[in-house]
Amino acid sequence: MRTKTAHPRISVVVLTHNRAGELLTTLERLLALPENPPIIVADNGSTDNTAALVEARYPSVRVVECDGNLGAAGRNHAVACVETDYVAFCDDDTWWEPGSLERAVQLLDAWPRVGVLNARVAVGADNTTDPTCTLMRASPLGRVGLPGPSLIGYMAGACVFRTALFREVGGYEPRLFIGGEETLVSLDLLASGHAIAYCEQLTLQHRPSPVRNSALRRRMLARNAAWVAWLRLPLGEALGATLRALDVFAREGTLVRDGIELLGGLAWCTRQRRVVPQSILAMRDRVRAAERNLDASATTTVSGKFDAPT
After folding, report:
1. Do residues 241 and 130 both lie within one domain?
2. Where is the Glycosyltransferase 2-like domain (predicted)?
3. What secondary structure letter does DSSP report for 296?
């Protein structure tokens, strides 16, 4: 029996934390892909024997064991091991459909301005399109010069990056952990002249894990929105995001603890502050207006509709 040759152009990075059973199912599906991509697991400090189970069952899969749960930044450690031009991301409860990765390579080869492709996410056995993807498909920014609708954000667990570009922007900021971590990367990508595009030709299957902490995620989303605003947005928006975050903390009963953490991070934010060009803010405002008109129930930066393993 001949061994399949690994795809020379694209790898897959899978983020996981204490969901070994789901991860093994996902890896089985990824290993069956006709593209045969190199697969790297970013194990965020799991305590359920994840690394040993993967190494025993799927020795061709590389496991990068992070020093604790790093949230989205765990992906950075896995990308450091990627040796291909492009890298596709998924989580332990998602997997790429056959042919999607090959198509991603073709599109990124053909469209050099595109830095990130966001896939269609099919949720559950009935393949319902994720609401965020529905909004992406209807983006008011058009698709001139792009392989699909232009976006201001993407889904961290359902995208394909140019590997060099991911490294150039520094990957995910460790301080943000999980929750809206894509926003900072998106703003920096757009500011550098790269485009983000939605592509229906790429499909990611998602079987949502029941292991979630919605209250924690709401608080992290609020905190991160404030920090990102201080990092990249005008002063008025930063102040508004801070007040909204404090309101969330108050409603969750964590005002003192989370408020101290939020305010304590502002010194770091102001040191790293670099406001994006007005043209990018205008793009964002057009998207927000269109979403309001659609009475949208999700956002292009994925506010809780598509959770990474925490």
Report:
1. no
2. 11-168
3. -
Q: Are residues 171 and 270 in the same domain?
A: no
Give the distance from CA 37 to its chain's centroid: 19
pLDDT, residue 308, reads 66
- For 193-219, letters b (16+ CB in 10 Å) and e give ebbbbbbeebbbbbeeeeeeeeeebbb
Range(s) of the domain holding residue 248:
214-275
pLDDT at 297 over 60: no
The total number of structural domains that make up the chain: 2
- 133 and 29 both lie in a single domain: yes
Please state, in angstroms and rounded to a whole number, the distance separating the CA atoms of residues 301 and 196: 12
Whether 121 and 253 share a structural domain = no
| pLDDT tens, residue by residue, 257-292 | 999 999 999 999 999 999 999 999 999 999 999 988
Answer whether 72's CB lies under 8 Å from 181's CB.
yes
DSSP state, residue 75: H
Q: Is residue 109 part of a domain?
A: yes
- Confirm whether 185 is domain-assigned: yes
Same domain, 241 and 167: no
SS3 content of the chain, % helix, strand, coil (to 5): 45, 15, 40
**Token code pair at residue 180:** 């809206």
Residue 236: CA count within 13 A, CB half-sphere: 0
Helical residues (DSSP H) of 58-117, grouped into ranges = 74-79, 100-110
Main-chain dihedrals φ then ψ at residue 82, nearest 5 degrees = -70, 135
DSSP string of 140-179, one letter each residue: TT--TTSSS-B-S---TTSEEEEHHHHHHTTSS-GGG-SS
pLDDT tens digits, one per residue of 194-232: 999 999 999 999 999 876 668 899 999 999 999 999 999
Structure tokens at 141: 């920014």
- Picking from 227, 237, 235, 309, the residue whose alpha carbon sits closest to that of residue 272 is 227
